[in-house]
């Protein structure tokens, strides 16, 4: 039943700390399950399954392209929901999809003992299924932000908490996976399986924490006669210039970041001759990311999102160039990696803070509010970049002559150095050019957009007692 109680201005509403923590735990949990594949699955394919590196790259390419399109379908599914229950529009997907994600994350590290072709097919199918359910879980998680708050500063803080959770998840995977895996030196395939099980179990618990700790306050219900179809929703995406620029920039930055993560295990083993250094490097570099994440809200408040984003890219490029020139020792590698990862903290945090702004821009420009489609249009670009990032190391490892578990030639070592430093640096530079020249959605325009959207809709707001959510209706 409608309630006439006045409501807080959604642009100034502050979120409680416990809710921000719960939201951050969502990306912590999802990254515990995702990063074990990003960091170690290619090495599992080459060193345990015995697949040629190019096969591993093709598996990543096929699976990521598949999940790029499942992301888009997930967005349409989210936007088409009309009968919103007490659990909300997005929250049910966060928890219930996490269970198959965890099971498939573990199954990806199974050594079947089949023939080479059978192993390849099975690995591809398992990774595709993992991506399918991960889309359902993670796209709902990201698309939920506009339903949580309309305050741009709170969105930036949620993005910082999200990036903090993602960084902790990546840190834990970097530091903790190998020590568990090497406990089983006689049966390394068992070590991979045990480590994956530990991380997947923790991931499910964190997703439950997020599911129970966040609230959807602004769930928009669009009348059926105004319901955007698939074609209309996708047209709304392509009429959203800030989203398109952000997608292209993210295509570069995520590919660069994933290439670094995939190659660093090879770099520490064969160039620096100390695979255990990966844990120490992860601890220091991820610690720098956490420091950067904590600085994001204050930096954004003072300089604005775009300037902070570009500053992060500059630090990233500088760290990679210094590492290529002088990163041949363990100490210098860790030091310059810390600089580069410190820069990525601002870039990756603001990627998530900028997406909700493009949702409002799209509604202002087209009249269609499609959180799911806008968010999954963005994640589509992320999956394409992840596909390319998975393919490129596999191709390059094969082309430079990498052979597992032997001393590598100088040509192979130089190829590894270029893969982990030069290619990511060039991609980060491309992202800086695109964002600097073409991204026009600043803080002043955003406030104008929010005010105009509110004027269009008026103040007809009803309350849903079970969810304590504001259901905004078109008038």
TrEMBL record:
One of its GO terms (cellular component) is plasma membrane. Keywords: Membrane, Transmembrane, Transmembrane helix. CDD domains: MFS_MelB_like. It comes from the Bacteria. InterPro entries: MFS_2 (IPR039672), MFS_trans_sf (IPR036259), Na/Gal_symport (IPR001927). SUPFAM superfamilies: MFS general substrate transporter. One of its GO terms (molecular function) is symporter activity. The chain crosses the membrane at residues 21-42, 54-78, 90-110, 122-144, 165-184, 190-211, 243-263, 275-296, 308-327, 333-355, 384-403, 415-439. One of its GO terms (biological process) is sodium ion transport. NCBIfam families: gph. Belongs to the sodium:galactoside symporter (TC 2.A.2) family. This is MFS transporter.
